[in-house]
Amino acid sequence: MLDKRPAASGLAAKASKARILIAVMLFVTVVINYMDRANLSIAVPAIADEMDLSSAQQGLLLSAFGWTYAALQIPGGWFVDRVPPRVLYPACLLLWSLATVFMGIIGGFVALIALRLLVGVFEAPAYPINNRVATAWFPERERASVIGFYTSGQFIGLALLTPVLSWLQSVLSWHWVFIFTGGVGVVWALVWYLVYREPHDSRANEAEIAHIREGGGLVDLTSSRPERTRVTWTDMATVLGRRKLWGVYLGQFCLTSTLWFFLTWFPTYLVKYREMDYIKSGFLASLPFIAAVIGVLFSGVFSDFLLRRGVSLGIARKGPIIAGLLLSTTLIGANFTDSTALVIVFLSVAFFGNGLASITWSLVSALAPERLIGMTGGMFNFIGNLSGIATPIVIGFLVTDASFAPAFVYMTVVTLLGIASYVLLVGRVERVRESRSVPESV
């Protein structure tokens, strides 16, 4: 062992950069993932006009994805711990993309809800897979930057594609929004299967693998996969019995509530309450997403910079998250102006803050028990994405034909609760140990 240390350290300069391709692949997959989540928000004003849907019915349709997506996070995390990303990810991509294509082919309110539920089913393992791949391929000091980079895909894709999809809808029809986005996912599923490999089976040389391992990357996750394949009560006690884990679970619910507002009701707000046409609303809707891109890219790089400068892991990771949540409360400003320009400014600042706070998966990577990374990520995403159910439905019932103001009040209150969760519950950032007998109380 002593003889190998200098060799491993000396190899750092000769390490390959195969993990850069992995980061790009994760980025593209997230772009497609969120494009297929947000396509309905672009189409729903036209769908509502065609099918004469009430605000409550629109809220139900917009929430359909969240029901199955949230419910299957824990089973999805279980699969992630046992099925290799090379197999699981393209299978999920193909199936949710086909369901998306059929949303453009099969009409009817009930059919759209059913297909949207299927999209949620097959997207459920996506972010636990992202976290699993990032944990295996990147050392701790690079991980927030990588998570920030691929998470930015959810904003970059929407910023660039929202005007394109809005134009496509205006030129053809809302049906083509789903056919186009689903078709892209089908192609990418094949690309992922052909290209992705685990570190030991990839083009990464031994120096790069040693660099990842020495930096805390779990390059041996596949070979150390547990033999048992069933979830035990002890596993559940570990994932559900720790206060610091509950801090990130609840914090994620509050953070993603803002995200789900932008993914569901934001285009309708611009079209119906600000009386914009589809082309103009598509352009203006992209501006907050651009702000979020800047926020999330800055957040990951800044967090890793702080870590390299000797700042504690807790401050480096939690600091940008809490600051971002504080900035997200600025969306309440939209209730106090009639200026569309100022509304876009308030919402852009708020979504910049949401992007700044979106490195929360770096906390999951740092806190989750090593053997239960997928399951912890599944629970984290399950509770976080309950907001995908709550936000569209609650806003649908709160708003009236004359006023959208109650929606912004609701979003602000939820964001403040998220700040309290990270401040009061998470505590010191360190990997959670597994429960052995009696679970630690929440």
TrEMBL record:
InterPro entries: MFS (IPR011701), MFS_dom (IPR020846), MFS_Na/Anion_cotransporter (IPR050382), MFS_trans_sf (IPR036259), Sugar_P_transporter (IPR000849). Residues 22-430 form the Major facilitator superfamily (MFS) profile domain. SUPFAM superfamilies: MFS general substrate transporter (SSF103473). Keywords: Membrane, Transmembrane, Transmembrane helix. It is a multi-pass membrane protein. It is found in: Cell membrane. The chain crosses the membrane at residues 20-35, 87-115, 174-195, 245-263, 283-307, 319-336, 342-367, 379-399, 405-426. This is MFS transporter. It comes from Nocardia fusca. The lineage of its organism: Bacteria, Bacillati, Actinomycetota, Actinomycetes, Mycobacteriales.
